[in-house]
Protein 1
Amino acid sequence: MTGQTRIQRRNRETILTAALAVFSQYGFRGATLDQIAKQAGLSKPNLLYYFPSKESIHVELLEGLLDTWLDPLREMNAGGEPVEEILAYVRRKLDLSRDYPQESRLFANEILQGAPRIAENLSTELKELVDEKAVVISGWADAGRIARVDPHHLIFSIWAMTQHYADFDVQVRAVLGPGHDPFAEAEQFLNTMFTKLLRPV
């Protein structure tokens, strides 16, 4: 939306921030415009001035989030040292889980519902990037620079082992108990695990 005033831009951001909190807690189906308006401190008619529907808010959040989610993989450098590049990707994904837990849960909820609003993005933008990096990883393996691994499943495992700390934060902290830093401990563990996995035989 172009030509917005400063107040209009601020209100849109307030609505999106409020919607993120509501969607990440209740999911798309459980969230209501009334909840989002209350969280934003705006009236429902005021909210509808900026966004015509709950779905329009949800789609805008997801489209912005997908870019954020893909950036760490985009940064994987084909010319770098392979193990270091993969471990750096693991660290960037952990950082996302630590710094953007609500966004992670929003994305997870969308996927669990069958990705009705971003299915096309998954089969185009996401798939193209993952396929591109899978070629890089396979090239490293072909050159004997890392162990031979299935590159797609390597990426899937990184997603699973990093996003878990955002999506299941309450469970992780309940099991570890007080006095633990889940993300620092996870980084140390994952670095060790992936280093051993990727070490050339």
Protein 2
Amino acid sequence: MARVDELVTTIVESGFSSLQVIADFDRTLTRVWYNGKECETCHGIMDNSSLMPAFFREDSNKLLAKYYPIEIDPKMSEEEKIPYMIEWYEQIHELIVKCKVSQESLEEMVSSSNARLRDGTEELLSKLHSAEVPVLVFSAGMGDILEQVLRHFNVYTDNVKVVSNFFKYNDKGVMIGFKGDLVHIFNKNENAIHSSDYFDKLKGRNNVILMGDSLGDIKMAMGVPQPSNVLKIGFLNDKVEERLESYMDNFDIVLIDDQTMGVAGSIVGLMK
């Protein structure tokens, strides 16, 4: 605990000018539960949308049932999991292409979904925007849906950079594939950002608040130019007993079934 106290003190005392924030999206910035119901992730928004064909939901759930247990298996190494994760993402991506998704349908998918930001996220992001703190949102989900959620809640400001899997459209605005390299759960690190203008914003920002809900998220600060202090906040949302030990070993602070941004909000609230 002493190390965590020291980290928090250093980050607070160094102020906004030394800070950058790196966060996962699904189940980190967004809630897992709301009013007793499970909230939709980026994939879930598509899965449950009436604008998507029925076969998409069916096939996507089969893939989830096959690959998700591998993703969270505490007995498998990351190296063993990676080929399965790539396989899963590629199959999901092929499935989405078959659905001929139109760019203009995404706004309706998001607004009719039950996706919600964690309580206090809007206030936290608003404060970071006012203080001109760069925020990197890193997601192995679908960037187009994610951006739409950020817009829906009015938090997609000019200090926020999203790195994710983005759709490629034809001239009729129909999704025909994905742009660039695949971002999956175990290659989420800043090396995946080839945008030099983002790195320019990070000069002198050696303090990082990193937030994620999976062990793969810990790497998100790799590639940050000289980070000296990285505070890792982990949201442990399910399978608590079997995963708690590995989360405690890897994150500085572990929050169990917490649907708020209270901890990060309190730290940022102390800063000048």
Protein 3
Amino acid sequence: MECGVEVVRYETVNRVAWVTIDRPAASNAINRAVSDGLFAAADRFNADDDALVLVLTGAGDQAFCAGGDLKEMADDAMTVPPQDFVPQFGRNLLVDKPVIAAVNGAAYAGGFLLAQSCDLCVASDNARFAITEVKVGRGVPWAVPLPWLVPPRVAMQLLLTGDPINAMRAREIGLVNEVVPAAALRAATQAMAERIAANAPLSVLAAKRTARLFADMSLREAFEAAERIWHPVYLSEDAQEGPRAFRQGRSPVWRGR
């Protein structure tokens, strides 16, 4: 809470959980209240069996998230941020189900971090991305996965210059999946999330785990780990339901088992 206002909102629409950073007057910057709210929202999503995809976004149309709240950092004389300063999906926060960033406007510094750590990213055509820490003397230990997402020299340029890139450039380098008009961002992201939610849930969870194996393992180890991940999926009821439904000319009824 911030002066009696909820700074992170959680709502569910057709099996999609929307988590919104709601500090538009501060460009949705991350302060302690936002950080706590994001952790709480992720816990709520993890426990919500009816929500199959999480969408992270910011309030308004000017900023997804401008990064850490520099005013609060200055007031607190923050040196090394604690590891729980901001949720990082896959590092200090485990979310097995898919997470999509819906980037509306600026995603700078910690906002870039949030977009980077989501599984997918849909951006409005006015979105901008930048790793601005070099301009204010701060650090980016969270940027380790960046060369896995974009070409290494592009990652180096982003890190060393602090210069922003627009949405189309972000899509060209692979940071963003889709670019849509700002007015269509919510609908386009909801549609993508619903397409994911309509798929076999066990296969979706296993696919997410598989996609990240190669970042941590050798090719041989990754193949072996992938076989272990998918073995119970092949043995599930859903694995029989999919072909059966196709043969019968109907939509499958997934049971998640």
Protein 4
Amino acid sequence: MKNILKYTFALLAIGFVSCEPEFDSPVTDDGFYSSGTANLSKYVAVGNSLTAGYADGALYITGQENSYPNIMAQQFAFAGGGEFSQPLVNDNTGGLLLGGTQIAENRFVLAVDANGNPGPVRLIGTPTTDITNHLSGTYNNMGVPGAKSFHLGVSGYGNVAGVLSGASNPYFVRFASSESATVIGDAVAQNPTFFSLWIGNNDILSYATSGGAGVDQTGNLDPTTYGPNDITDPNVFGLVYSQQVEALVGNGAKGVLINIPEVTSIPYFTTVPTNAIPLDAATAGALNAQFGAYNTQILPGLVGIGVLSPEEAALRMINFSAGQNFPIMTDDDLTDITAILQGPPFSLPAPLATLLGQLRQVKSDDLIVLTASSVLGTTPDPGNPQGVIGVSIPLSDKYVLAVSEQVRVTAASTAYNATIQALAGAKGLAYVDAKTALARVANGGIPYDGGVLTSQFVTGGAFSLDGVHPSPRGYAYTANLIIRAINETYDATIPMVHIGNYGTVTVSNN
């Protein structure tokens, strides 16, 4: 049973990607570029971690410098764009301090373990960005990592007193204009002539990355009752998003709205295969023998007494075979039969009843999250070498985004996107279909001036080491998508960037 899963990242034979910058001289003659009917002199970007330049699981200087708004602002400068300021952190370590105590983790770097296997690890070191050291002034980049749609209008979201309780956001604390300020209020107060708004990702993402550990709050119109991993009700999203757009266009500003990609397009959900457990014939046979009575007696018995439907009983059957296998898991969407199995007629011992309580095998349409690679196939108890996670010990539900949970995520994001697109049309704003664009990256890739940009973890070029946020090259691609939409909507000729000039994950990324 040893080494059942060495690595599921497809990193064993990585050819590390390097980037040789291309130095194409842009045409800078006066009048060659135009902002068209847009006014780019005061650009403000509103959003969450994607807008801030978050990458590799942290906010750090290089990531911020390669944020898509900063890349866009550099291109806007050719067409009348003004200065663009960002609330830069203090270092490239990532991580945050609160009065000297670390409250956010350092960024990931690519490292090689004792067996020569490369993979992401947290950078060792102490961050120097303490959120109690408040920044003065205003900032064009109003991206706040972790913000959900309704957070942008919450008074006190930048109050340091609420950080530990989760009532406020440590990133906004650093640069909020006051303790009672709102993100959208501080953005509008700058009187932007042009804006971008990309918000709503976190309204579904935390539910998805936690394997559906939160609650789908569709039907609950009170976001103050939501947990951190809950799905935001589409009507709540529609209301607050409409208010934000109204506020941003209030002084005549033009802008661009960006929709919400599918979580299935990012490597956090696509890297670990669902059939991640290799077994030989003898081991598979032994496991099937152990689950024989469960499949042929217990499950039919539960159907017979009306506890389970035939469909749920079929879903819960466990079968292994020689070759690649689907791991077993606990699924909190299933009926909990633990107590029933402990009583007559089954009278199973408590440990066994608990094991079988919400047990099933992962299915091909489920998604195993990236972090599961660190536990799948391991033996957590040194005294029990047969206790292998995914084989004899269920993989926790938090590591699997089940099909039923994917349906909830998709339903919410579809509703959000309908709101975003409708408002863009109603207000005459540029609109970016990031959902379709990212799906193209995930399904075959996007050719660019130096190769093909894909969503393959580490080697694809588009994503950073957290598997969720783009690399600088991915942010450059994002900037080009937005610039193209601006040019088409406002009859502008803003130059796009050469994606190959921007870096991605390399072995020297430290």
